[in-house]
Design goal:
This is Integral membrane protein. By secondary structure, the chain is mainly alpha-helical. It has one domain (3-139). Helices cover 84% and strands 0% of the residues. The chain has helices at residues 3-10, 15-39, 41-48, 52-74, 80-103, 109-139. α2 (15-39) packs antiparallel against α4 (52-74), α3 packs across α4 (52-74) and α5 packs antiparallel against α6 (109-139).
């Protein structure tokens, strides 16, 4: 994806705004996921074929993570080191989701599909954030 395609996706040519928008989107989607895991862990656990206690723990973690990413997104110029930490955390989450599915989770079909889809979305956030950070660094040189 080129810088112009990235800018079009974020609907702005300002690399700083692009980065903040992708961080904000990550925080919103992650927060919504965390809230769902907390609010309806029982029925969602039954549907996905995973323990509701696991969803409760993940939900609390995801809400805390989303809050941190949201705070980072609200900064006028998020520090590159913190953005890199978010990117690495997202990549780690995606990898661990797939690993858990392969090694120890035995979800329903819907749960397996959900696990792979959410891992792909999180990896996508990492890619978009990485590209936006690179574009921001390139424009400030």
């Amino acid at each position: 994806m080129s810088a112009s395609q990235l800018a079009a996706l974020a609907r702005t040519a300002d690399p700083q705004v692009v980065l903040r928008r992708f961080l904000t989107l990550d925080a919103l989607v992650t927060g919504a996921n965390g809230l769902a895991y907390l609010a309806v862990s029982g029925p969602l656990g039954d549907f996905l074929g995973v323990d509701s206690a696991l969803l409760l723990g993940l939900g609390a973690f995801l809400l805390a993570y989303a809050a941190g990413v949201g705070v980072l997104a609200s900064r006028g110029r998020p520090p590159a080191l913190a953005v890199r930490a978010v990117i690495e955390a997202n990549l780690t989450w995606a990898a661990l989701s797939c690993l858990a599915l392969a090694l120890w989770l035995t979800p329903s079909t819907a749960g397996a599909v959900w696990t792979v889809l959410q891992a792909a979305v999180v990896a996508g956030f990492a890619l978009l954030q990485h590209m936006a950070l690179r574009a921001r660094q390139g424009s400030s040189e």
